[in-house]
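Problem statement: downstream parser choked on a complex file, so we are re-checking the raw output for the histidyl-adenosine monophosphate run. The parser issue turned out to be on our end (a line-ending mismatch), but while we're here, posting the original submission so the record is complete.
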Amino acid sequence: MSEFQRVRGFHDIFGEEAKKFRYTANLVREKLRLYNFEEILLPVVEYLEVFQRSIGEITDIVQKEMFSFQDRKGRWLALRPEGTAGAVRAYIQNKLYSKPYIKLFYEGPMFRYERPQAGRYRQFHQIGAEVFGSIDPMVDAEVIQLVYEVLSQLRIDAVIEINSIGCKVCRPAYREALVEYFNHIEASLCEVCIDRKDRNPLRVLDCKVPTCKEAVKEVPKMVDFLCEECKEHYSKLKEYLSKLSIPYRENPNLVRGLDYYTKTVFEAVAVEFDLTVIAGGRYDYLVEELGGPPTPAIGFAVGIERLSMLLKDLPMEDPLYVVIPFGDVMDYAFLVAKLLRSEGKRVELSYKRGGLKKQLELANRLGAKYAVIIGEEEKAGGFYTLKYMETGEQLKIELAPTW
Ligand code: HAM
């Protein structure tokens, strides 16, 4: 075993996994392009406070999952655990609010000190999208439509769950009702939930401890506490989703693990692993809370590892051509490889030397569909010999006169 191992919770993505990863990410990016989102490239590091203020002090992420550190001047920084906080910081700092509204997306690694397990890493990759500047529930519907289309196109069996968690007007009464309820059933809550139920009772709804999961089944529901505005917003969203024929399930206990959310929250849960693959929601106060003008916003993030892990098959790859040079023909071999590539073909110029049999064996191992044999004769005659690996059939292909 090598002396050096990768850090726990971090991983190398290569081979088939890398292909699935890239295919998934490209598909999501293409979908975002069709919906006219523009890319923003954000730093991986922000001041710790950006995350504390956005995600919330009493959340798992801020309390125990941050990769935070001091720089040489003693300022507290952190590797980003998610992208929304940084996107909001950038939106304000770059005065992107001068536009009527703006749709941004970002892609890259995120870092959370979580307990590693299948589909949960300490470095993982998200593509996140954020819409700043509209409160209209049609935006919520369109964002969920985009998510639904990604899942359908990847043929991933997932359920979209939605909920509304209200706003400043209606949530306080719900909070109170929750605290009261939890005080009654305190004995069945875990230590952590007993501790956080007064300060952040919504977090209890998200607790994964089986006794807490059981205890929250009969809990008061936010949907019963929504103010008129939130109720109207939520019912419009559901109406639009139905009009768009997007299947969804209402989950009144869906609260999400980050504190910035208001009104709509949603998650796409993969049926196969019971794992959330895409998640998001509205955050209508966050821009203002971080010092910007009041700006409603909504967004979501796709976990690329989780989504690509669920991909069954990749579409067929382009056939591979392996160019095999014999003798003093390197210049001609380079030329033929260049010509084939210029035609858009995927070409490997063999880097190993040896007899024809050995070279063909190598081409096979490289996954060649065709071997392109180049010898003195081919060079003199201005052609190459194309061998179809599966049947062994051979053809002489003349180069175009310009070559
Ligand atoms: P989140 O639910 O914390 O939301 O993460 C979004 C997605 O990132 C998850 O559904 C999952 O696919 C993936 N993910 C999270 N943690 C891990 C992990 N440890 N390993 C692998 N994948 C993981 C957010 O991050 C919000 N910023 C989403 C958002 C954007 N809300 C509004 N705008």
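For whoever reads this later: The CA atoms of residues 137 and 236 lie 6 Å apart.
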